[in-house]
């Protein structure tokens, strides 16, 4: 087995399912921590501040500081700031997105708008969609945190960011630039934070369509763990297989 120095680890379905922790994954991260390995939790959840994500992980017994969490909102904010550090942005999203945009020194505006930035917003209104749609029609760039259409929950699959984003996309005829997994953008940014090279980093996740494809698109090795969305049988139809597959992280010994 190849030795890795850095790990990009998904959250939901990998570290926990809803509010229930996955003990084997908790133990695995504790081992990484004890060995002094580098790891970052890489999530398409745009709604939360990394501090709050770390807190949830701590309560599950996972050693995690705010610096161990990289959200698609952070990746989206860095992407825009790199393109135009003086950009005025109109966000449609929750606190995780708005805080990330502010942390990147971008200006929030609902009048002069260079970018419409959209993530999951569980307080979406017709007015927010209207401001966003009119700005995009006037030429504002359209950037989206992630395209996940469905959000797994205890109640079943709820509308995801991608479903809400499609409303703006359909009304304007403009497809957004997606930043989150499976895009390589978020992986490249996380690698820069982690400080490891592509060759020495492993992407770990439960979802082939987001986590594993993100690894494949970014050119890094991937480990699919069958504790969440993707099952063994789902892999029969995919073109590129994950580098490794495993039932649980318990058996992932190095
Ligand atoms: Mg997941």
From TrEMBL:
Chain positions recorded as Mg(2+) binding sites: 10, 12, 206
Keywords attached to this entry: Hydrolase, Magnesium, Metal-binding
Protein's UniProt name: Putative hydrolase
Residues reported in the UniProt entry to bind substrate: 181
SUPFAM superfamilies linked to this entry: HAD-like
Database matches in Pfam families: Hydrolase_6 (PF13344), Hydrolase_like (PF13242)
Organism of this sequence: Amphibacillus xylanus (strain ATCC 51415 / DSM 6626 / JCM 7361 / LMG 17667 / NBRC 15112 / Ep01)
Cofactor note: Divalent metal ions. Mg(2+) is the most effective.
Active site, UniProt feature: 10 (nucleophile), 12 (proton donor)
Family the entry assigns: Belongs to the HAD-like hydrolase superfamily. NagD family.
Any one GO cellular component localisation term in the record: cytoplasm
Keyword Disulfide bond: no
Lineage of the species this protein comes from: Bacteria, Bacillati, Bacillota, Bacilli, Bacillales
GO molecular function, one term: metal ion binding
């Amino acid at each position: 087995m190849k030795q890795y120095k850095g790990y990009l680890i998904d959250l939901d379905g990998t570290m926990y399912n809803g509010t229930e922790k996955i003990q084997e994954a908790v133990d695995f991260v504790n081992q990484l921590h004890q060995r002094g390995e580098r790891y970052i939790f890489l999530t398409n959840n745009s709604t939360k501040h990394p501090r709050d994500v770390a807190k949830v992980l701590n309560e599950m017994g996972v050693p995690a500081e705010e610096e161990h969490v990289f959200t698609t909102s952070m990746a989206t904010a860095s992407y825009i700031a790199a393109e135009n550090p003086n950009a005025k942005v109109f966000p449609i999203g929750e606190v995780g997105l708005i805080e990330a945009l502010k942390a990147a020194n971008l200006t929030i505006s609902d009048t002069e708008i260079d970018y419409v930035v959209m993530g999951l917003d569980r307080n979406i209104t017709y007015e927010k969609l209207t401001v966003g749609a009119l700005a995009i029609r006037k030429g504002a760039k359209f950037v989206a945190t992630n395209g996940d259409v469905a959000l797994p929950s205890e109640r079943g699959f709820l509308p995801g960011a991608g479903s809400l984003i499609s409303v703006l996309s359909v009304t304007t005829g403009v497809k957004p630039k997606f930043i989150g997994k499976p895009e390589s953008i978020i992986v490249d940014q996380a690698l820069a934070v982690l400080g490891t090279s592509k060759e020495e980093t492993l992407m770990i996740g439960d979802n082939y369509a987001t986590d594993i494809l993100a690894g494949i698109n970014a050119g890094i090795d991937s480990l699919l763990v069958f504790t969440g969305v993707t099952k063994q049988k789902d892999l029969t139809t995919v073109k590129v297989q994950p580098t490794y597959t495993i039932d649980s992280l318990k058996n992932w010994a190095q």
